[in-house]
Fold this protein.
Amino acid sequence: MDKKKENRDLQAILDGLARVAKGDFSTKIKLSSKNPDFVAIANSFNSMIQELRNTTDDARDSQTELERVTKKLKRIFEASNDIILQVNKYGTFVDINPSVEDVLGYKPDDLKGKHFAKSGAIPAKEIPKLLDSFKNAITAGEATNVMELELVAKDGNTVCMEAGTKLIRHGDEIEGAVVVLRDITRRRWAEKALREQEERLRSIINSMEDFIFILDKDLHFVEYYQSSEHPDPGMYAKPEEYIGKSITEVFPRAVAQDFEKVIRVCMKTNNSQQLDYPWEILGATLWFSARISPLMDVNRNTIGATVVVRDITLRVKAEKALEESEKKYKKIFENSPQGFILLDTEGHIIDVNKKICDWLGYQPDEMIGKDHILYPFLTRSGKITAMKKFGQRLLGKVLPPYDLEFITKKGEKFLGEVLAMQIRDEKGKIVQILAMITDVTNRK
């Protein structure tokens, strides 16, 4: 009976080995006898089959993962907006993704199998340099850093590209390289436009007598611009000496306080402000005018202020000189022994002095604003003469003195000698008429 069991067990072992030989790793030997030799063989066989199954499962899982990664990389390869290409160690295109057609107009099959130097996409003058660079990378085993180059599209247009290279290794041997090309043409255009804009801005600044600075919300200098032709009129220092400093470190205390108040109002209300201020420099008082505007980000949030400063010292001096001159001539006007009447070009009285008011007995407000027809201080014949002479003066004629009959508020008549002159603006246009009157009633 045991002999039959042993024969069946032997046959089971042989059948198991036969199934394994055919690639069936699912088998398992089961024994009916307890022959120690058969048991040892069966246990070894079953253990080996289990290891083979585990190895097969691992290999299958690895293959599945490899296929998944491969599909993912293929999707990235085909969907990338950048040009991804593979070259062997001799520089021949092995593979290239579809983006090459979108960027350069070449189909992948147009380039596969060609050497990059003979692809037609590289300008002839750049080929020697790129060949040397590629050869050195393969020989040294080190890819060049990201570089910029210009390629020629199929339609002949130049495309600016940024190239990154990664070498492909098999053990210690270099098999080729993967190159990623990114179209940076628009970036180049934008950079060029920015440079041109900066040059225009610099030209504008150089043509200005103003200097400009930008402050952050804490009133520290962020940027500073000054004309090379008109150096900083107020602080006499290099721009880099201001950056990062607060206005209290740059301006005198009183000026800084005024600036802070006005800038705070500007940033709070988002409305431009004006500040005129004096500055004592080397014993001289200079005057400046600052135009302060809110500085906003793209979301319309106030992030600081832009300040445009102009030296107005000459203007202030001119205004003060004019003011002094006006005071001087006003004093002469008011205290002259002659009567003065100032008229506009329509014959309306603009101003009168004290002497003419004393003679005629009228207050200034009773005379100012009146025209020829309503002059209460001229007789009928005097009005006619005055209108005639006024018209001649408006035509630019220079008239000799003439007599004019006046009548006071009390009805008394007196004779005045009138010498009138035209007052012209800077363009030579007559804007006013000044009449100087002398009392000649008692003239013999």
User: Anything to note?
Assistant: The longest strand covers residues 158-170. The chain has four domains: 2-75, 80-183, 205-317, 336-439. Residues 2 and 66 are 52 Å apart (CA to CA).
